[in-house]
Structures are given as C-alpha cells and as structure tokens.
Write a structure and sequence with these properties.
This protein has seven helices and 20 strands. The chain has 305 residues and is an alpha+beta fold. The strands form seven sheets. A five-stranded antiparallel beta sheet has the order 6-7-15-11-12. A four-stranded mixed beta sheet has the order 1-2-5-3.
C-alpha cells in the first residue's frame, strides 16, 4: 500500500526513524507476527504530525503499537504503518502532586521514579509490562485499581495529524480495559497523572510485594502477551479456562500457561496461528463448560477475533 512516492516522502520526513518490511515478531512480547509495510518511530511532535498528515493524504492506515505487550500480530503482512513512540520517555514532576509522563515511558522507568521520589498511587502498575501509552489506551490495572483513575489529562494527536489536543479528565470515558471516545487512529503522546506524597521506603515496600505476587502467579520467564481475556463480571478468565480443562494445553509452539491459564506462552517456534487456535479453543470450551462468553483483552494487530 506504500507506493514509491509515499515511501520517498516518509524517508524525507523521518529519515532513519522509518523502516520498511519490518517483522512484528521483533516488536511484540509474544515474538510472533508477520511483517508490517513500515514502522515509524518519530522523535518529536512535529515528526509525528507530519507522518500522520502524509498517511492521511495517501489514505494509508496506521496502527499505534506501544511496547508490544497485550498485542498479538497475525502471521499475515500488516498493511500500513505501525507507529511506535519508543523514543518518547520524558517523565517529570508537575505542580499539584502530578507527573507528566510521555507515552514511551516504561513501567520500570515509572516505578523507579516513584520509588526514588516517594510518589504513591501508581505502585499497582509495578510489573504490568508495556508503556504508558499502551496502559492508558487499554486502561491497564489490577483488580480494584486502574490507570484511568489516575489520569488528569491526556495529550492526543488527531488521526490526521492536524491538531494536538489536551483532554481533561471529565471528557474521558474509561471503562474496564478500554478508553472510549477517542477517534480511531488517535495517538496518545503524554498523560498527566495524579500521585500522592509518601515515604520512598513505603512505596518500595508496596512495589516489592506486588512484584513478588506477580512472580508467583504469572509466567514471567517465557514470552507471552499478558492476560489474553478480560475477566467476566464476578469471575476470572483464568479460573474458567482451567475449569474447562485447558490449563497447559498446547497447539504447536503455543501453550496455555500451566501457571496461569489466562496467559498464552510461546514455548519456542510458536506462530500467531497457534495462538489464535488456542484463543478460539478457550472461547469454545469455556462457553460449553460454563456458558460464559470470553472477550479478548489482547489486541489483535492485522485482524480481529
């Protein structure tokens, strides 16, 4: 879909920040996926807006990819340009107990900052993989806590690159594992997050307890995409999948984790098709066993479940 003229324009605008025919297996935590037409890693708002304007004019789609967690890239080629804000890692304190955090800031960078400075309120994100942009787009969290609760303002670039908006909390609609109301293709570039002052030792202790719990209950040592399904109201997807007899089940190189049944791991040589078959099977078996319809939390890049 990217013709020679557009390719030349993208190269002129972005230079080394645009690459073509990039395997998404290199950019996603599951280590599966076919090639994208191109991957752009703009360094500035001007570069991002310029790239979006070019794509909008040429009617070429774009896909925003954070750290590649909670994403499953299909084996087929992905048309259009994948945009990653991996170079956007500015993190600073703002007046009124708030942090301005750019979209490419990782969970580990944010956690270290809060531990060192004594900022409470975001420790629940310790160990949740990915970047702030991805967290906000999916309203990441743990039972009883979500990042949306902490958002005071979002800085968002429109899909066409025509404008940058600062959206206040009251205009945003966070729901379980999603942020609704933004135009499709919008790019979250930074967030203002609410925090509270605390003792660094207290923040470190909370983080340590959460990380220990994750290590005990989640398959952190193998490639995965995090939680595959949303938890149904009043229940847990992992419990339902285990009750349906699928814990540890394999298709090719993909396996429903024997440690936590809501994780699918790449045990070596898995394809996206292997993972998709396990997703299909989990939905079918859980529906037959309990009558519950599982809904994907993982984002499918290149198609839909």
């Amino acid at each position: 879909m990217i013709d020679g003229a557009l390719r030349a324009e993208l190269c002129d605008r972005l230079g080394a920040a645009i690459r073509f025919d990039v395997p998404l297996a290199r950019l996603t935590s599951l280590r599966v996926g076919g090639p994208a037409d191109a991957v752009a890693t703009p360094a500035t708002r001007a570069e991002l807006c310029a790239a979006l304007r070019l794509l909008a004019r040429a009617r070429v789609p774009h896909h925003v990819l954070g750290g590649g967690f909670n994403s499953l890239a299909l084996d087929v080629p992905v048309a259009g340009v994948v945009i990653q804000l991996s170079r956007w890692r500015r993190l600073e304190e703002r007046p009124g107990n708030a942090l301005r955090v750019e979209a490419g800031v990782s969970h580990s960078q944010l956690t270290r900052f809060c531990c060192e400075r004594g900022f409470a309120g975001l420790a629940f994100g310790a160990g949740i993989p990915g970047t702030i942009g991805g967290w906000i787009a999916m309203n990441a969290g743990i039972p009883g806590r979500e990042i949306g609760e902490r958002v005071l303002e979002l800085e968002v670039v429109s899909p066409s690159g025509a404008r940058i908006s600062h959206l206040r909390r009251e205009t945003l609609h966070f729901t379980y594992r999603s942020l609704r109301g933004l135009a499709p293709g919008s790019v979250i570039v930074s967030a203002l997050l609410r925090v509270e002052r605390s003792a660094p030792a207290a923040v470190r202790a909370e983080v340590a307890a959460l990380l220990a719990r994750r290590e005990e209950t989640q398959p952190l040592s193998v490639p995965s995409c995090g939680s595959v399904f949303k938890n149904p109201p009043g229940d847990f997807a992992g419990r339902l999948i285990e009750a349906a007899g699928l814990k540890g089940h394999r298709v090719g190189g993909a396996q429903i984790s024997p440690l936590h049944a809501n994780f699918i791991a790449n045990t070596g040589g898995a394809t996206a098709s292997d993972v998709m078959e396990l997703i299909r099977l989990a939905k079918q078996r859980v529906r037959e066993h309990s009558g519950t319809r599982l809904e994907c939390e993982v984002r499918i890049v290149g198609g839909a479940t």
